[in-house]
Amino acid sequence: RMYRLNRVREQLLQSDIGACILFDPINIRYATDTKNMSMFTMHTLARYVFIPTKGPVILFDYPKCEHLSKDICTIDETREAVSWDFFSSGKNVESNAKIWAASIGDLMKTYVSDNKNLAIDVCDPAGINSLKDNYDYKLFNAQKFLETARSIKSEDEIICMKASLKIAEKGVSLMFDKLQANMTEEE
């Protein structure tokens, strides 16, 4: 877990990025090894993580879900997410986006200080505009940093990949041996 988090932080440091905010459930899982309602949070902005290059990793999660990441070493603090997407906020999108941007401003001021470079992987216009209109951050696409971090595998990841490939190869071999004409797909 710490290997992956540190890979993300290394990428941010190399590009002089002060912090990143991740919404994409796949990126959150890679960086923190936490998960919660991944399919749902692909549709909403109800879960995100703040990762400064130095300092605490703060997970913003759906209400009453703190227990899901309680004992994960990559998370220093869990807070309730401020959602502003239309699904969650309806007519309050803009006002909730300003509240979210203010909370990000507080985090940047507290944990990042002078570095105004902030990377975000997925965000809608209301969130981006609230950050740009109210703060002088230079915004970057965090996907570049996450994909680069993910491209270098740890020893544990290689072991898992080899095990997955062996099982897949065994399954394909069994299918190959059992296939006969006139079989249904289910058979």
- The poorly predicted ranges are none
Query: How many helix segments?
Result: 8
Mean pLDDT: 91
Category from helices, strands and their pairing: alpha/beta
- Global shape: globular
Reading side by side through the largest sheet, how are the strands ordered?
A: 4-3-2-1-5-6
Described by strand count, sense and barrel closure, the largest sheet is: 6 strands, mixed
The radius of gyration computed from the alpha-carbon positions, rounded to a whole number of angstroms, is: 20 Å
> First CA to last CA: what distance?
40 Å
Number of strands: 6
Q: Report the helical percentage.
A: 40-55%
Topology as H/E string? HEHHEEEHHEHEHH
How big a fraction of the residues is strand?
5-15%
List the helices and strands and how they pair.
Layout: H1 2-14, E1 19-22, H2 25-32, H3 38-41, E2 48-52, E3 58-61, E4 77-80, H4 86-89, H5 93-111, E5 117-120, H6 125-134, E6 138-141, H7 143-151, H8 155-178
Parallel strand pairs: 1-5, 3-4, 5-6
Antiparallel strand pairs: 1-2, 2-3
Helix pairs in contact: 1-7, 5-6
Protein architecture, described:
The chain has a six-stranded mixed sheet with strand order 4-3-2-1-5-6. The chain is built from eight helices and six strands, in the order H-E-H-H-E-E-E-H-H-E-H-E-H-H. The mean pLDDT is 91. Helix 1 crosses helix 7 and helix 5 crosses helix 6. Strand 5, helix 6 and strand 6 form a beta-alpha-beta unit. With 187 residues, the protein is an alpha/beta fold.
